[in-house]
Amino acid sequence: MKKVSKLERGMSYKILLLVGIVVILLIGIGAAYIMMKSPSTTTSTTTTSSPSSSVTVSSSSAPNNNFYLLVFTQKGIVQAINPFTQTSNFLGFQHVVNISTSVPQQVYYWDEVPAGEMFNASYIVIPVNNGSVYIINPSTLKVVETLNVGKSVGFIGVAYSPNQQYVAIADGPSGVVEVINLKNLQVVWKDTFVSPTGKTYYPCDVRWSPNGEYLIVPMRFNNTVDLISASNGSVVKMVVASLGSQPYMVSPNMQGTMVAVEYAGNNSVGFYSLPNLQYMGMVQMPSGVTPQRGVFTPNGQYYLEAPANKNEVVVISTSNFQIAQTISLPSINPQGLASIGITPGESYAYVVIHGSVSSGGMIVLINLQTLSVAYEVPLTTAPAFVLPVSVSTATYLVDNVLLPPITGLHC
């Protein structure tokens, strides 16, 4: 028998050791591959198909429900609402301003806080579509001052700055855009946008850029979208749209890189870069759908369009500027949505359905992880706009300011 040298035995041992290491590595790689192919226990994915594209959203975290809603109705009533319970949504109410149901003047248009934030400003600024603006003490819900911006019935709205220390007001009929300091209620600047013949350019809307440097204002009858310095009111840049397109609502994304523009004249939504306002894409609404107000999802992946004449939300992809799906909402008459925003914590979009003064409206929360209806809050009053507030703020108002809820409350 041949003797095996120490050198040969050492080499054999090394070969066996190398083979063992290779086997262990192969087993580990195989196990990792199997785990990668297996469904995750912490993250799920929902895909909704549509003719043009698909919506894929991740649902990896619990939604943030740590807020209540202050609902301002068309006839001057404010209500505190808990949107997450079916038994006691309506917590209390107060008749803030006495607006008769027999006149067209209403709290009707918008009062917008920064997307994803709770209201925490010094005053609640309530626009009435006759050109008046009520300044409300948020601790007492009493009117402390009235501003007269315009004199005619029509689009008027308020937008709070990102730090909620200023508000911008746009009144379409008068052509007035102004910024007010909420610490002292003084006008920082005011300008009137009219043609050389005196016709209003009709600033239908106003939104702050997320960095607070600019206001974005659509001038409906001038067919422009103006980027205006928030500090002094000078026009920095503008988009000149086609004749008759009538830009009348705008919404920037939370990243400050894109703005969507609703066009009343051709039922489309245009997308432009910020701050240079370069054209990015245009989406034509489905037949019979009139775009009015929208909001970007927090990640900027989709734009949620709330039409003026349909109880549905149109989901637009910002990667290809196509309609990805529609989200059907309860069939309340008359059809049409008032506004849409992002809740604190960025888990939901809240949609306001005006309904009617006699039969009431509704608030709908859309889960942004699944892009589906999560909660429906029916109201016996006709809502105008909604301010998300902390639970502690709502509790204070319910305990110290608001009246107990009553059945069948109408405007």
UniProtKB/TrEMBL annotation:
Q: Which domain of life is it from?
A: Archaea
Q: Does the keyword Plastid apply?
A: no
Transmembrane segments in this chain: where? 12-36
Q: Does the keyword Lipid metabolism apply?
A: no
The region called Disordered is annotated at 42-61
Which keywords has UniProt assigned to this entry? Membrane, Transmembrane, Transmembrane helix
Stated name of the protein = YncE family protein
**In the record, what lineage is assigned to the organism producing the protein?**
Archaea, Thermoproteota, Thermoprotei, Sulfolobales, Sulfolobaceae
Gene coding for it: ST0877
